[in-house]
């Protein structure tokens, strides 16, 4: 063992390097070999340090064993690269974990929105609207394009999108197929309209806009005869003017041949739906190129990196939609949903309409802007329910009844989500059912009909109202509805149904609708009225159970043969007590009459056996 003074002994520290970004592996290998050669006489192995610091004590003797350590373990490039790839795997895993966290957070937020929806709808129901705003809505609700001053730019953007109804002109150079063609065309047209308003005259609009917007003294912008040609190319692409961009490339072919000789072919290929290799963008990055030129190549090679030229939300949305292959791909981008307004536009353009309506109805937008924007969306898409919810939340604040009726009738539009064949087979439209449900929920059944010259609600809606009330067993509102429409036949049907239920459920008294029943008993004769008389007589008999009441019953006074089969469930229910009354009275004629009635009604053998031996013996 060496007994020299440890203080005089020295050893080289472990080799440490800052994290580096490897872009060229050949250059990286050369650097590693240089470092190996430079530190070949130094200790560089982690195992060496493990031995020195074993059990928390420093063994200084081992610090001097350089020769042995160097022979035992030497650095090789394979180990370094293995470590590099291990770090990459760890980095990829961390990104994956962050992505999972983000998805989980979004699901939690969506669940929270779903939970909060009833409260938000309740808030919508009791929303107070200023008198002047309510007056404007009532006076202009039927106008196609009323004059509205929007304070929210996102609502105004949606309103313009559905108001434009532009016939999309397909640029013969733009054959690129995308599911967002309409939305891209809208954003491009909007941008061109914007720059036209920004320039003094309407000649050479793009050139003037570039001269005003960007400086030709910028060190990252190439200027040719005072013109920023790459910037002009980008603005033409942003406006959807592909042909104009090609014309500009041809006009200044000398400049573009020397700076970007392949640009014209790349633009033509990209807008014909061909995929451009990313290497084209990489070549541009190696040189200090015009920043507009770099952005153009980013667009063509579908590079997702955003530059400062993409400055507004509309620019950003256009850039993302240009490369998106599916609506889900675009909607999943978290950066497009930084706030509720941006998320609303993104969900609308991705055709996630449920999310769009959810945001519209939950946020505190100006009522006039919300009303007419929602109307535009729902009438364009033929999805009426969200707008109908808003309508019925403010309907009671209308001052004129005829306006209420007109607005409700306006909601019953044809729905495009049902095929023509299905629509032909379905008599009731989904929109009419929605309106009918909301009429009941908002307690506005009195609007179903108004006397005088006012146009009533459409029959389609009324039929759905009746169907819903009938399924709910709400006879009171059904009677009220048919009374408004003077439909005595339907009223009698409902009353007869009620009386039949009383008998089948062993109820002994007419507890409801007594006044209405007495009124119709005094009216002119009809089959339904005769049925009502017969049912009332049978109810009286079921209470008294004597032969005299039975004899006075219309059942034994030549009733209509068409009416008798309708009484089968009632007679089957009362068969035992009728038989008992006839048997106790020993009335042979009534027994014979009742037996014939049972044959006409179609009572089965099981019911016949209930007539009893005595009645059979009488016959």
UniProtKB/TrEMBL annotation:
GO terms for molecular function: structural constituent of nuclear pore. It is found in: Nucleus envelope; Nucleus, Nuclear pore complex. GO terms for biological process: poly(A)+ mRNA export from nucleus; protein import into nucleus. The keyword Signal does not apply. Keywords: Membrane, mRNA transport, Nuclear pore complex, Nucleus, Protein transport, Translocation, Transport. The keyword Nucleus applies. GO terms for cellular component: nuclear pore. InterPro entries: Nucleoporin_int_Nup93/Nic96. Its main location: nucleus. Belongs to the nucleoporin interacting component (NIC) family. PANTHER family: NUCLEAR PORE COMPLEX PROTEIN NUP93 (PTHR11225:SF4), NUCLEAR PORE COMPLEX PROTEIN NUP93 NUCLEOPORIN NUP93 DEAD EYE PROTEIN (PTHR11225). This is Nuclear pore protein. It comes from Pseudoloma neurophilia.
């Amino acid at each position: 063992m060496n007994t020299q003074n440890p203080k005089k002994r020295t050893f080289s520290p472990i080799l440490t390097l800052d994290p580096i970004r490897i872009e060229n592996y050949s250059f990286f290998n050369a650097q590693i070999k240089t470092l190996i050669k430079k530190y070949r006489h130094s200790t560089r192995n982690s195992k060496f340090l493990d031995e020195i610091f074993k059990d928390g004590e420093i063994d200084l003797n081992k610090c001097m064993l350089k020769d042995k350590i160097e022979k035992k373990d030497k650095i090789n490039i394979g180990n370094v690269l293995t470590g590099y790839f291990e770090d990459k795997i760890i980095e990829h895993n961390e990104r994956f974990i962050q992505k999972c966290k983000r998805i989980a957070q979004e699901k939690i937020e969506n669940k929270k929105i779903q939970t909060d929806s009833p409260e938000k709808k309740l808030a919508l129901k009791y929303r107070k609207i200023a008198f002047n705003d309510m007056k404007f809505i009532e006076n202009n609700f039927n106008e196609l394009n009323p004059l509205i001053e929007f304070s929210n730019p996102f609502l105004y953007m949606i309103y313009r999108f559905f108001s434009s109804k532009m016939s999309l002109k397909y640029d013969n150079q733009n054959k690129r197929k995308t599911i967002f063609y309409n939305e891209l065309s809208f954003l491009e047209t909007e941008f061109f309209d914007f720059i036209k308003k920004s320039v003094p005259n309407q000649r050479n609009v793009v050139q003037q806009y570039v001269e005003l917007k960007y400086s030709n003294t910028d060190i990252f912008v190439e200027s040719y005869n005072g013109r920023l040609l790459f910037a002009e190319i980008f603005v033409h692409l942003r406006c959807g003017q592909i042909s104009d961009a090609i014309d500009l490339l041809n006009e200044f072919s000398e400049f573009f041949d020397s700076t970007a000789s392949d640009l014209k072919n790349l633009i033509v290929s990209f807008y014909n739906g061909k995929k451009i290799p990313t290497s084209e963008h990489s070549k541009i990055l190696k040189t200090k190129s015009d920043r507009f030129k770099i952005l153009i190549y980013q667009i063509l090679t579908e590079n997702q990196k955003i530059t400062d030229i993409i400055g507004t939300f509309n620019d950003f949305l256009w850039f993302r939609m240009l490369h998106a292959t599916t609506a889900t791909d675009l909607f999943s981008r978290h950066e497009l949903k930084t706030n509720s307004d941006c998320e609303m536009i993104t969900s609308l353009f991705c055709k996630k309409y449920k999310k769009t309506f959810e945001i519209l109805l939950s946020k505190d937008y100006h009522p006039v802007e919300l009303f007419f924007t929602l109307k535009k969306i729902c009438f364009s898409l033929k999805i009426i329910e969200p707008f109908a919810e808003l309508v019925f939340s403010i309907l009671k604040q209308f001052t004129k009844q005829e306006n209420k009726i007109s607005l409700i009738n306006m909601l019953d539009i044809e729905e495009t989500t049902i095929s023509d064949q299905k629509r032909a087979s379905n008599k009731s439209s989904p929109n009419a059912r929605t309106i009918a449900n909301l009429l009941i929920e908002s307690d506005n059944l009195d609007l179903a009909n108004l006397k005088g010259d006012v146009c009533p609600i459409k029959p389609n809606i009324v039929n759905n109202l009746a169907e819903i009330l009938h399924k709910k067993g709400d006879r009171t509102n059904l009677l009220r509805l048919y009374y408004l429409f003077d439909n005595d036949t339907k009223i009698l049907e409902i009353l007869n149904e009620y009386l039949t239920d009383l008998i089948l459920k062993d109820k002994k008294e007419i507890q409801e609708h007594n006044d209405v029943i007495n009124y119709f008993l005094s009216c002119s004769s009809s089959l339904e009225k005769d049925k009502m008389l017969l049912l009332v007589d049978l109810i009286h008999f079921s209470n008294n159970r004597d032969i005299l009441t039975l004899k006075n019953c219309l059942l034994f006074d030549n009733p209509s043969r068409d009416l008798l089969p309708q009484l089968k469930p009632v007679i089957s229910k009362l068969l035992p007590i009728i038989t008992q009354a006839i048997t106790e009275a020993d009335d042979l004629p009534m027994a014979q009459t009742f037996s014939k009635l049972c044959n006409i009604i179609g009572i089965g053998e099981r019911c016949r056996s209930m007539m009893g031996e005595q009645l059979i013996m009488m016959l």
